[in-house]
Design brief:
This protein is of the alpha+beta class. The chain has one domain. The protein is built from 5 helices and 6 strands. A two-stranded antiparallel ribbon has the order 1-2. Strands 3-6 form a two-stranded antiparallel ribbon. The longest helix is centred in the middle third of the chain and has 12 residues, at about 50-60. It is globular, with a radius of gyration of 17 Å.
Length: about 140
Amino acid sequence: MLCGNGNYYTGSTIDLERRLQQHQRGEGANFTKKHLPVKLMYFEEFERIDEAFYREKQVQGWSRAKKEALINGEKNKLHELSECKNNTRFDYPSTGSGTASTGSGTASTGSGTASTGSGIASTGSGIASTTLRDSSKTDGQ
């Protein structure tokens, strides 16, 4: 969900419509209560709640740019936006050659279906739902 302060919030629920209404009334998570109004930007559906929770945690760790690529259906950009752009990563030494090598992660969409809405969240045909909170912005939370 896009919050009133411009940050994204990510969460899960078994009833997306009900949870969205709770957030909009200020009865949702503490973060969204402080940053109304909220707008659903994206959601995904999962058959199993553990898959939805996994995806929620995965997306929470993403940059704002990567979240927006997902929202906009630009799946071709997800891998590029996963790559480390600074020197903070740890290079693991390879065996044999004595040089360091690193891998790059790819984004996984899980086994659910994705659709864009007027706002961000993921749901599982009544089982689980994930919304986005932008971890790349900080405002003292």
